[in-house]
């Protein structure tokens, strides 16, 4: 209810400025203990995936808290898991502003942020400092990318650096690592989804994870986040590669470069990834194709255009084990978390 009054004020601001203001307010409320009063009264709905126990299947997608600076306040909104990042080894400013645009008639967002973040060291310090959400059994996903000036031939080096940095944060089955090669806002990043490029990268990451597991004495699950703009014939190829290289999950999908669903709307011509309601149909189709090919070999995390209870149920019915929210939160507010949880609990998923 409160968000209905706040949204017109936020939407009067530049989208990125509104994002920063929202987080400052949320963090201030968290420090005062007010966010804990916002926790929805919804029964737990446990799900086991990747060898981890999720209190409920509704998570936050990567991109909202890039620096892992607001874990406990976000956790108070009722999520079963939070995916943080994308973080790169070195800090980088991302693309020039303005770089985020709302398309309200389509309940959509275009962003070309470009992995703007404070770097791995600050990310690790922030996540290590947050304790309340994990203390309640919340799961963290730590989403890794490469720096924009790192050539694709050296991309594996950046991902391995990220893995080494975040691995100690995920002891005692408290989370997973996501490899992001599907953002449309880092030049040529999606080329890493190509057949030979992907095989080489996954092989290196599998070997690095084995070394880290031997060193630390525990195995952290790994997921790969893929693009909705893949050709349909590429989907089973990627699924098979993930199984062959001992990955634990696939996240479908990132934002799209397509503008078919928003043609003619203000800002539709802006470059960047389109997220929100126009992505729903394609993301669901990718989940359905993955599920049909994998046949339970890997869990699927569904994300993209989930802004209602119906959209959430649709994604679960298509084959997703877990789901994530992002743009839907901007349009519907934090009540979306509780509404989706209640709907999935009522339907028994």
Explain what the structure shows.
This protein has a single domain, classed as TIM Barrel (Alpha-Beta Barrel). The chain contains 12 helices and 13 strands. It has helices at residues 2-11, 15-31, 71-75, 120-129, 132-135, 155-166, 195-216, 234-244, 280-294, 309-318, 327-332, 335-347, and strands at residues 47-49, 52-54, 58-60, 81-87, 100-103, 108-111, 139-144, 175-180, 222-226, 249-252, 273-276, 300-303, 322-325. The strands form 3 sheets. An 8-stranded parallel barrel has the order 3-4-7-8-9-10-12-13, surrounded by 4 helices. The two termini are 26 Å apart.
CATH class membership: Alpha Beta
Which architecture per CATH? Alpha-Beta Barrel
Average predicted local confidence, pLDDT: 96
CATH H level: which superfamily? Aldolase class I
**Largest sheet composition:** 8 strands, parallel, barrel
* Strand order, sheet with most strands: 3-4-7-8-9-10-12-13
What is the N-to-C succession of helices and strands?
HHEEEHEEEHHEHEHEHEEHEHEHH
Report, as a whole number of angstroms, the end-to-end distance: 26 Å
Helix and strand composition category: alpha/beta
How much of the residues is beta strand, in percent?
15-25%
């Amino acid at each position: 209810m409160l968000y209905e009054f706040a949204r017109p004020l936020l939407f009067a601001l530049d989208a990125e400025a509104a994002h920063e203001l929202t987080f400052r307010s949320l963090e201030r409320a968290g420090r005062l203990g007010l966010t804990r009063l916002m926790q929805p009264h919804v029964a737990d709905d446990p799900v086991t995936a990747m060898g981890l126990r999720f209190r409920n299947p509704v998570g936050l997608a990567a991109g909202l808290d890039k620096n892992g600076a607001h874990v406990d306040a976000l956790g108070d909104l009722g999520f079963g898991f939070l995916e943080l990042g994308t973080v790169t080894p070195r800090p980088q400013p991302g693309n020039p502003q303005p770089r985020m645009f709302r398309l309200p008639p389509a309940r959509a967002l275009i962003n070309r942020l470009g992995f703007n973040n404070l770097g791995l060291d600050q990310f690790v310090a922030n996540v290590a400092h947050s304790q309340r959400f994990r203390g309640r059994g919340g799961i963290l996903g730590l989403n890794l990318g490469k720096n924009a000036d790192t050539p694709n031939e050296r991309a594996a080096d950046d991902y391995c650096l990220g893995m080494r940095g975040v691995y100690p944060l995920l002891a005692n089955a408290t989370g997973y690592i996501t490899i992001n090669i599907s953002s449309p806002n880092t030049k040529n990043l999606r080329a890493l989804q190509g057949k030979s490029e992907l095989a080489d990268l996954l092989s290196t990451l599998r070997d690095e994870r084995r070394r880290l597991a031997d060193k630390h004495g525990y195995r952290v699950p790994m997921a790969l986040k893929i693009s909705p703009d893949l050709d349909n014939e590429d989907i089973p190829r990627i699924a098979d590669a993930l199984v062959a290289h001992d990955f634990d999950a696939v996240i479908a999908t990132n934002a799209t470069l397509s503008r078919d669903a928003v043609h003619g709307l203000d800002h539709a011509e802006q470059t960047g990834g389109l997220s929100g309601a126009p992505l729903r149909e394609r993301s669901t189709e990718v989940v359905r194709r993955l599920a049909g090919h994998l046949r339970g070999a890997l869990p699927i995390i569904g994300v993209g255009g989930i802004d209602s209870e119906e959209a959430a149920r649709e994604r679960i019915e298509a084959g997703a084990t877990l789901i994530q929210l992002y743009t839907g939160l901007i349009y519907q507010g934090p009540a979306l978390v509780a509404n989706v949880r209640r709907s999935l609990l009522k339907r028994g998923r």
